[in-house]
Amino acid sequence: MYNSTLCYIENPQGEYLMLHRIKKKNDLNHDKWVGVGGKFEDGESPEECVLRETREETGLTLTDYQYRGLVTFVSDQWETEYMHVFTATGWTGSLIECNEGVLEWIHKDQLMTLPLWAGDKLFLDLIHDPDTPFFSIKLRYEGERLAYAALNGKELAV
Questions:
Q1: Exposure string over 2-32, b if 16+ CB within 10 A, otherwise e
Q2: CA 25/CA 100 separation, integer angstroms
Q3: Is 15 helix (H, G, I), strand (E, B) or coil?
Q4: For 39, which DSSP code?
Q5: How far apart are CA 102 and CA 105, in angstroms?
Q6: What ranges in the chain are assigned the alpha helix state H?
Q7: pLDDT tens for each residue of 62-102
Q8: Which helix or strand (DSSP H or E) is residue 63 part of?
Q9: Contacts of 36 (CB under 8 A, 6+ apart)
Q10: Separation of alpha carbons 34 and 32, rounded Å
Q11: What is the pTM of this model?
């Protein structure tokens, strides 16, 4: 098992900076659209990791961000992952090319039409509302099929 961060950066036009994962071989997220982020390095806090990963993948330095939730990602094919989810509305710097995929600003009203993990659709609904309290969501996949989901310990229909 390992820890990672996932950040949804929102611009004033209501768009999220999304990463279309098309460049890496053997990528669990191949051809999916995801936020930016990645694995913790030894000794990092969630905040340190999200700042480093965002800078490495996008060239942006976050200046206004919020820790929003925890996703427990369980799979019959991949190692268990604890994803620390952030949103951000402030940054400095300019976008760079990402070696993991293509970065693109996508309006939040169009996100659900993209190839996303089914579980991502569940927590994207939560982060659209800045007043949603901190959440914990568990997602269990069989292959790419979402087989189980629970929000704050209560099972959800999938």
A1: eebbbbbbbeeeebbbbbbbeeeeeebbeeb
A2: 9
A3: strand
A4: B
A5: 10
A6: 46-58, 118-127
A7: 999 999 999 999 999 989 999 999 999 999 999 999 988 99
A8: strand 61-75
A9: 6, 7, 9, 17, 19, 53, 54, 57, 58, 98, 103
A10: 6
A11: 0.93
Low-confidence ranges of the chain (pLDDT < 50): none
Neighbour count for residue 74 (Cβ, 10 Å): 16
61-75 and 135-142 strand pairing: parallel
Q: Fill in the amino acid letter for 61.
A: T
Domains for the chain: give ranges and CATH numbers. 2-156 (3.90.79.10)
What's the longest Cα–Cα distance across the chain? 41
User: Do the Cβ atoms of 23 and 100 come closer than 8 Å?
Assistant: yes
Using an 8 Å Cβ cutoff, are 80 and 1 in contact?
yes
